[in-house]
Amino acid sequence: MKQKRYNQEFKQTIVELYRSGTSVSDLNREYGVSEVTIYKWIKAHSPIENGGGLTPAEIAEIQKENLRLQQEVEILKKAMTIFAKK
């Protein structure tokens, strides 16, 4: 069975329709997206309570950027020790 791919704009539209009062079962019938998938999109696009209003996707992006910055700092620290020896 071939897995369907949906772009972010479509996902956001479905979530907005849900928030405007359309039921998940109606969205399922109209767009052919499974209810489980719609609930996952709703969860992914909803702010986390103690996350400062950030969605899980935004938090994941921030964590990814934080890891990249930490790696850069470690590289710079190693470079400083190499240049300090010269």
Automatic annotation (TrEMBL):
InterPro entries tied to this protein: Homeodomain-like_sf, Transposase_8
Transmembrane segments: none
Signal peptide bounds: none
GO MF: DNA binding; transposase activity
GO biological process: DNA transposition
Name used for this protein in its record: Transposase
Organism: Sporosarcina thermotolerans
